[in-house]
Amino acid sequence: MPTLEEIIARMRTEPRGIRFVDLCRVCDRYFGRPRRKGTSHRVYKTPWRGDPRVNIQNDKGKAKTYRVKQVLRAIERWEYEKHSA
């Protein structure tokens, strides 16, 4: 099982082909439990105003590429705000 650091590194270099369960692990670590858990979607709450959610989607066991990029942007913002405070 890959570590979270390995998954995030792969998300940055190769966002296509990320397993949905791996993206869920990353989101669980950064954003806590999902607000909503459906069959193909999970919605995570983020700590900032505006669009305070991350929505990830399962596509036959893989995460949608644009959702992987959305999670990366949210992680970058989370880390920036964490270190700026």
Describe the protein's architecture and organization.
The protein is of the alpha+beta class and 85 residues long. Helices cover 49% and strands 19% of the residues. Strands 1-2-3-4 form a four-stranded antiparallel β-sheet.
Beta strand %: 15-25%
Q: Distance between the terminal alpha carbons, to the nearest Å?
A: 33 Å
Count all strands and give the number.
Answer: 4
- Uncertain residue segments: none
Q: If you average the pLDDT, what whole number results?
A: 89
Morphology call? globular
Oligomer: single chain
Structural class, from helix and strand content? Answer: alpha+beta
Write the layout of secondary structure elements.
Blueprint: H1 4-13, H2 20-31, E1 36-37, E2 41-45, E3 53-59, E4 62-63, H3 65-84
Antiparallel strand pairs: 1-2, 2-3, 3-4
Question: What's a quick, concise take on this entry?
Answer:
The protein is of the alpha+beta class. Helix content is 49%, strand content 19%. The protein has a four-stranded antiparallel β-sheet.
List keywords for this structure.
single chain; 85 residues; alpha+beta; 3 helices; 49% helix; 19% strand; globular
